Amino acid sequence: MEIARHWRLKQQRYGLVGEVCPHCDHKIFPPRDVCPNCGDEAKEPFNFSGQGEVFSFTTIYEAPAGFEANAPYTVALVKLDEGPMVTAQLTDLGEQPVEIGMPVEMVTRKMRNDGDERGVILYGYKFRPVLAGLR
Amino acid sequence: MEIARHWRLKQQRYGLVGEVCPHCDHKIFPPRDVCPNCGDEAKEPFNFSGQGEVFSFTTIYEAPAGFEANAPYTVALVKLDEGPMVTAQLTDLGEQPVEIGMPVEMVTRKMRNDGDERGVILYGYKFRPVLAGLR
Amino acid sequence: MEEILITGVGQIPAGEHWDSSLREMGAKAVRLALQNAGNPEPQALFVGNMLSMNISNQAHLATLIADRADLVGIEAATVEAGGASGGAAIRQAVLAVKSGLVDCAIALGVEKFTDKAGGELESALATNMDGDFEAMQGLTTTSQAAMLMQRYLMQYKAERSAFAGFALNAHKNGAGNPNAMFQKAIKADTYLKAEMVSEPLNMFDIAPFVDGAAAIVLTRSSLYKGSAQPVKVSASALSTDTLSLHDRVDVLEFRSVARCAQKAFDQAGLRPGQINLFEYDDQFGIFAALALEATGFCERGQAWKMALEDEIGVGGRLPCATFGGNKARGFAGGATGIYQAVEAVLQLRGDAKANQVPGATHAMIQGIGGPGSTCVSHILSKMES
Amino acid sequence: MEEILITGVGQIPAGEHWDSSLREMGAKAVRLALQNAGNPEPQALFVGNMLSMNISNQAHLATLIADRADLVGIEAATVEAGGASGGAAIRQAVLAVKSGLVDCAIALGVEKFTDKAGGELESALATNMDGDFEAMQGLTTTSQAAMLMQRYLMQYKAERSAFAGFALNAHKNGAGNPNAMFQKAIKADTYLKAEMVSEPLNMFDIAPFVDGAAAIVLTRSSLYKGSAQPVKVSASALSTDTLSLHDRVDVLEFRSVARCAQKAFDQAGLRPGQINLFEYDDQFGIFAALALEATGFCERGQAWKMALEDEIGVGGRLPCATFGGNKARGFAGGATGIYQAVEAVLQLRGDAKANQVPGATHAMIQGIGGPGSTCVSHILSKMES
Ligand SMILES: [Zn+2]
Ligand SMILES: [Zn+2]
Q: Using a CB-CB distance cutoff of 8 angstroms, which residues of chain B are in contact with residue D116?
């Protein structure tokens, strides 16, 4: 049962809400309250656009418990347009081969069933390809 | 899934098989291959009689996951006739109040269903009261 | 003489931190301690934690917290020794600073218990006992304590009510601690009427499980340039016993405590009578009793009398749990040992306000893992000015 | 000059120990190391372990193993730093012995992986990453390495086959190690045809998960009375980076490794060129490559060439994984760092038989937790006689 944890993270998971540093304008995700760029306090919320590109990726065939039903699935390091990198699954790939540099955008999807057998379904961010010309 | 673990412990769990020190005749349970009495190697198997008495006890109402179905249940430190102490559930108590010093004997009982949802049933030792005059 | 100093302390309130994650709690305590120490540059972070791999599915915790506390790059490791994890983290920090290989170290204790409850929490706690021969029987940590208390009452012919003193003292002291979970004194009658949990243990014999984080900063005296009066570590010791009660020759003797306390007294060159306050590990009242006896503060079988006669109050012969202990402050697992250190430092600095022990010069803090399976003791002392 | 010495080593074969429990494996390695050291009386046991709380539901492990190894009473604590846990335990033992508060310490690494497999093992391993922002996405440790390798191949324009050298060297060396899981050399062709696991990682880019235990005994030179030639610890360092790859400015730079190695070289007064053998952490081939680069053994983007040109063979410029490394010996989690120490000691003693590195004087051993999130490095050196 990790309900409290999901509740704590819901803003990040549903909305890709991070922080912006009031001192140096550095954008921060995941939020960490201290700016990694200038070391000052940075708690101001910032809504990321959800636009980015694939920095690296791979496909997982042997998934952790709770994710088996999704396997195989592709995970990526996505470089957001505003600067930070985020780890996320790619989705809606169809037949399209994934490539480094491919433009992607954030969507909300089902992540997994919670392991407590109570059938809690968790939602969170994934990224899908952006068609050429649509950005 | 803890099948390997149960397999490793089956002799202790089903038969209360410990060790006897060939150097000082100290009886050892759980087995530890080194005699706690004289410090020498002690790997010779020893079958405990399963007879003993309650050294201390209490009742558990809030049980760990996997044991909830058994709650409430009584656990005890049982001092075996051959010397060692063992931690075990008491069973077949009926209306009889448990007391320190009460004679008990080992029986094999179902312990719990394994937590892996595969329905593996684990058996192990518990202790039940010995009727007065039967020892 | 080169001494090991505690130059800063930080703590967040012990309680249910529904809105704060493990890493946030830990990072906050670290920042508070560094601020309190005058913002030195630490080189190492030792994190005491019991159960985050189970409760939060989070291992590699020290690196995560160093990262989150804006200390990326420093040395970091998690130290685990059951309920003694916090004290064990202090021990590691002392070894590190004393070795000369580290000049400034942080010992952090952090625990997030409240993300689990009931049977799931009991299972998590049961990882601290022998999995093959205790947890396998459905044993709980509470039932271990109950069996100890049952035997204690029988062997020493003490009344069930004998243990009231520990709870009354803790709650009285918790009233003066703004960081405590319970800040209200209780009456003897409340104790006697309390709900039974695992006979003979009632709910006032057991400390509540809370979230918490506390941190201290350590350095060597030759490196310390601050103006505040630091506290010195006069002794540091850690000892073990068999993990299981059933493997002990005498279950009512906490030998790990006796060994560890003796080492600490020898190192500090002090006798028990010279200790001005004792932060014992009262996760259960019976642990506090057995610890008082094994440490040498009273004879075997007599600790409950010390508690009943109020010798452990702030104005008593040996003030104990001066900020409420685990019972009233709350039991925060691996954070406990560091809360004790923070509280002892406040006492030795003379900053304990309503709970101030007059003339506090030497404080002993002691953590216990399992039913005396591990014990860690430190003696903290006021610097002569 | 007072030195920290390793006076005894012990190991059990790495592999699947279906019939042996965590505590038995650990106690056995401890006994072997103490025997090898001439049976001194240790005062402390530091246990490196990654996942026993998850895989075996067993915490409080150091106390359990001290108990089982007939060392009841000594100081014991578990040290966790992900895959660097074994090296972190050595680091703690070094700090303890160097401090003067402990005269003789054991560093034990022990891991029981094979009681879990498949998705359950992946979940257990995923506790080592950021639970909130990595594990939550279904990430696995293998896929972290695969993403690093994917980027590496693209950024440095290396061929997929570029990583064959690491696997070929490991298996060749494993053939001379009776304690290795795999004791047979493989061909380049076998590597190229191997099953893909997580593209571009194939099964030869990943070390197999095994059970294992290894231990070393440490003391100070002034206390050592034995006649055998001990090995000295010339440097000991531990550093961290962000826990997650996504928080790094440059993911292909293992900064924890660079920081940690630099500290170690400074302490020992040595340059990379003076190191005679390097036990890197090849849980994944890409980790070995990035570690070689960050440690300063070659330029960035060049490590795969070192491996392909056999510069890392026993007779090469910088022999690596001289007993097979994680790839052939097997990856035993928290035991890995201690296996490395045992192997380096055998090399420095001249006891490495078929795998002996000629003239081995200085060996560097290095453990990595997460994708370079934690790094611990030690330099072990032959004593001048
Ligand atoms: Zn900034
Ligand atoms: Zn014997």
A: 1
Contact C241, D72 (CB under 8 A): yes
Do the Cβ atoms of B32 and C246 come closer than 8 Å?
no
Say what the pTM is.
Answer: 0.97
Fold (CATH) for D4-117+209-231: Peroxisomal Thiolase; Chain A, domain 1 (3.40.47)
CB contact (8 A) between residue A56 and residue D143: no
The residue type found at B67 is: F
Task: Return the DSSP state at B4.
Answer: H
**CB-based contact (8 Å) between C11 and chain D?**
no
Domain count, chain A: 1
What are the helix (H) ranges across D103-140?
118-126
**Rg of chain A, C-alpha, whole Å:** 16
CATH code (residue B87):
2.40.50.840
Distance (Å) from CA C78 to ligand 1 centroid: 29
* Dihedral (Cα; D307, D311, D312, D318), 10-degree rounding: -140
Is CATH 3.40.47.10 the classification given to domain C140-207+233-382?
yes
Residues in chain A closer than 8 A to D245 (CB atoms): 77, 85, 87
Which one-letter DSSP state was computed for residue D265? Answer: H
Q: How many CA atoms lie within 13 A of C176 on its CB side?
A: 21
Query: Does residue D14 carry a pLDDT above 80?
Result: yes
Beta bridge partners of D202: D196
Q: Is residue B134 assigned to a domain?
A: no
What pLDDT digit, counting tens, does each position of B68-100 carry? 989 999 999 999 999 999 999 999 998 889 999
pLDDT computed for residue B118 by the predictor: 53
Cα C254 to Cα B68, C22, C158, C307, distances in angstroms: 31, 32, 19, 18
